[in-house]
Amino acid sequence: MAPEESVEVADLLRSFERRFLAARALCLFPWQSLEEKLRSSSDSELLLDILQKTVRHPVCARHPPSVKYTRCFLSELIKKHEAVHTEPLDELYEALAEVLTAKESTRCYRSYLLPSGASVTLAESTAMVSHGTTGLVTWDAALYLAEWAVENPAAFAQRTVLELGSGAGLTGLAICKMCHPRAYVFSDCHSRVLQQLRGNVALNGFSAEPDAAVNPESPLVTVAQLDWDVATVPQLSAFQPDIVIAADVLYCPEVTLSLVRVLQKLSACRTDHTPDIYVAFTVRNPETYQLFTTELGQARISWEVVSPHARKLFPYEEHSELGILKLTPQAPSTSLPWDGLSCGKLPPPLHLRI
């Protein structure tokens, strides 16, 4: 195999591996590239390699996607094989037979591979919106913020991190495993989200119990119920955050306004310094994004757009427009008026789906 072809095959395998473990929509898999490779070679070794990187993956063996998802994936893989090769591939049919007789569980998993070789595994709902909340699934902005954090570990090393709206926990767990924070506070307000979040924290080897034995190499982890609308400055001050993060919390005007109010309160929590704040977002409605930046100005919180980074680590949805804002609250002791021009220029217009 030529070096160029070897690189292409490795990239193809990596793409299948990451998408399958994360249970991404089957239409997002590189099926056309696979067909082209299969037609250019009579060897079935590539299909066996894909099988090992997906259904037979060690992570998948411990924490598999849903049975229905695995069945659909294998059926599609067999279709691609049959369209090119006349001889059946027993390993594919054996894997399909196993999943056809498997019982569907009430819980399924998504796993995300990290550069260290470790992974973040989440138990998630298969419904887009479940039990009246969107916090039971992982959204692309959480992946985007996690990838930025992995590339910028110094921003979190030996610091106390407060995450607002942690949801399923992907961003925080990636930071805890890769960025060496001193302490990490996961927070959310919905009871079912918190229940799932605590399970995901434990699933990934962290304990949120205050009396549990602490691994000196692991951060002190807390899972807190936090309602932005009723949170008080004393309550927020108890967290003593050095850095505050949030991902995909700009999805409606009401939540956006609540977020700005809680960020105002957080800016008054530390007398020695204001926390660094990073908010990652997918702009679904440009008006909501504009509302957020306008309200930040009213709250005397300056902001700047963080330079975009390549989306190489995690499998994202196609065509999603993602970004991160770094917010800088004005220190409480400062009496100078906020100047809207000091926060920099607006980012270029985003042509986005509403």
Automatic annotation (TrEMBL):
Keyword field: Methyltransferase, S-adenosyl-L-methionine, Transferase
Annotated GO CC locations: protein-containing complex
Where is each FAM86 N-terminal domain found?
11-99
Alphabetized Pfam families for the sequence: FAM86, Methyltransf_16
- GO terms of molecular function: protein methyltransferase activity
Please name the GO terms of the biological process aspect recorded for this protein, alphabetically: methylation
InterPro entries according to UniProt: FAM86_N (IPR029426), Methyltransf_16 (IPR019410), SAM-dependent_MTases_sf (IPR029063)
Q: Which SUPFAM superfamilies has this protein been placed in?
A: S-adenosyl-L-methionine-dependent methyltransferases
Recorded family membership: Belongs to the class I-like SAM-binding methyltransferase superfamily. EEF2KMT family.
Entry protein name: Protein-lysine N-methyltransferase EEF2KMT
What gene is it encoded by?
Eef2kmt
